[in-house]
Design brief:
mainly alpha
Length: 136
């Protein structure tokens, strides 16, 4: 385990990251964890493990020098998304959320996004066909 403050903050932020209900098989925290583990943790590969089939030595990449300040700035960006800093600092007006052409668009979209993860395969197919066949 790394003693870096940035590494500890990365782990803390990723543990707080919400699960994507629409795509549970795609995990942002897992992808980020692999990235930061490569970056912060020392390689477990020994030079003798890098022998190629013909007996030649493969080169081991040298570890990248970490810039702790830059890493902390990246962690701060993660925390800003977790805390919704930008939506609090720059709130959207009601006029923006209710366009004149379709005032219920965003409300309907949020309802659809909340119902989609719980919908069965058959329900998804019915909705798909409803989208293809529109009667007026």
């Amino acid at each position: 385990m790394s003693n870096s403050i940035a590494y500890i903050h990365y782990l803390r932020a990723l543990n707080r990251w919400p699960v994507d209900l629409l795509r549970p098989e795609v995990s942002f925290p897992k992808a980020m964890r692999r990235r930061i583990d490569k970056r912060f943790l020392p390689s477990q590969t020994l030079p003798q493990d890098n022998v190629v089939a013909n007996g030649a030595q493969a080169t081991v990449p040298s570890p990248i020098k970490l810039d702790e300040k830059a890493e902390l700035e990246q962690v701060n960006a993660l925390y800003s998304f977790l805390e919704n800093r930008y939506s609090k600092k720059y709130p959207l007006s009601d006029g923006f959320m209710k366009p004149a052409s379709n005032p219920t668009y965003y409300k309907d979209l949020m309802t659809e996004l909340q119902e989609a993860p719980r919908r069965s395969w058959f329900g998804s197919m019915i909705n798909k066909w409803k989208g293809f066949l529109r009667f007026s």
